[in-house]
Amino acid sequence: MITKPKGTYDIKDKNARVLKYIDQVVNDFAEIYNYDFIRTPIFESSELFHRSVGETSDIVTKETYDFMDRGERNLTLRPEGTASVVRSYIENKVFGETKVAKYFYNGTMYRYERPQSGRNREFTQYGMEILGSNDPHIDAELISLPLRVLEALNIKDLIVNINTLGDKESRIHYTTALKEYFEPYLNTLCEDCQKRFVTNPLRILDCKVDCDKEVFKNAPRMSDYLNESSKNRFESVKDYLDIMGIDYEVDDNLVRGLDYYDHTVFEITCVCEELGTGNVLVAGGRYNGLVESLGGPSTPAIGFASGIERIMVALEAQDIKVVDEKAIDVFVLHVSEKETQKAVFLTQELRLNGFKTEMAMAGKTLKSQFKDADRSNCKYMIILNENDFKTQEIQVKDCLTKEITLVKEINIIDHLDMNF
Questions:
Q1: Same domain, 30 and 108
Q2: What are phi and psi of 161, to 5 degrees?
Q3: Are residues 308 and 334 in the same domain?
Q4: Residue 417 zone, left/alpha/beta (φ > 0; ψ -120 to 50; rest)
Q5: DSSP 274
Q6: I want to staple 330 with a disulfide (CB 3.0 to 4.6 A). Which of 40, 185, 261, 357 is the partner?
Q7: What's the pLDDT at 189?
Q8: Do 151 and 277 fall within a single domain?
Q9: Are residues 237 and 136 in contact, defined by beta-carbon separation less than 8 angstroms?
């Protein structure tokens, strides 16, 4: 028997309906906030991700699915969506068409990591990006949008964490302070943090292994090394969040795992045991230097990504039902050949008029068909009987009241319309 690869999954039945519902909520909010949908390739040139997320990030060093195609080109299954959106923005010269571009995407990503609850090797993310604006109120908008999506899904116990990484000057000063602070404790840190100490000390604060150690609690804070412009910018972001009525917490250790972030970074977490330590539902931030680093013009930008599977775990953990049990409007029962022909015709007519309709499989007894109809949770049954054809009538059973009514075939659509 052939089975699916480790870390992948089948989404079907109720889970598929939940996924579609989440997609619809995301699409609705994207429309309200005026974001355009963008779809990028599932695989891209490996250089795109190695340059964008940084050679020192865990994504590149441990998690990317890299391969060489028959033309000996180095390709990578996309591990995240931002880099591809930026590549498209540059390649299609969108910067020459409009001042501010607003995009949203929804698709599968791939990272080679240990599968756990809400985190697989193949996973689905939706994300939103704004390119071309450095306005602090845009930062607040990008934080508010996914929060509103989660609230619309009725997910509770949400926490918005924000921080600022400042500009380049501020980060240089802060990086120096971190190295001086952590150097005496280097031997007590995990292997990854020892490497980060050399390649990117800021990412030590993103460690999930050592984060509870006392040495982390006393580490220098980014806020103490911000220059005035970075401080003022962050204060403006917080002011806009206050205006929008969004509660938030400033987390000095929030740095995010990708190298391209600067200024505002944020996460929206959910207090949910089922998600374990990976309780982040939304993560993002500003990346003002990324477009230029990938060959485009200097362009301020900000974005976020949200894991659909993690949202689904949170919904189940909080016993939130966003979809009803699968049900259909009409189930058509038939036995004889003439009844089957009539069933085919009626089923098509009902579907063309917007009724979710199912037709019993040929060859089953009427008793068996009734059981199938009950399992379908249908609202009405149409029970075909050749004897009724003489008067051009059809038996319609209301599954709630159990009442059976004889309806003229020509009036069947109007009859069902009146009762829905």
A1: yes
A2: -110, 130
A3: no
A4: alpha
A5: G
A6: 357
A7: 80
A8: yes
A9: yes
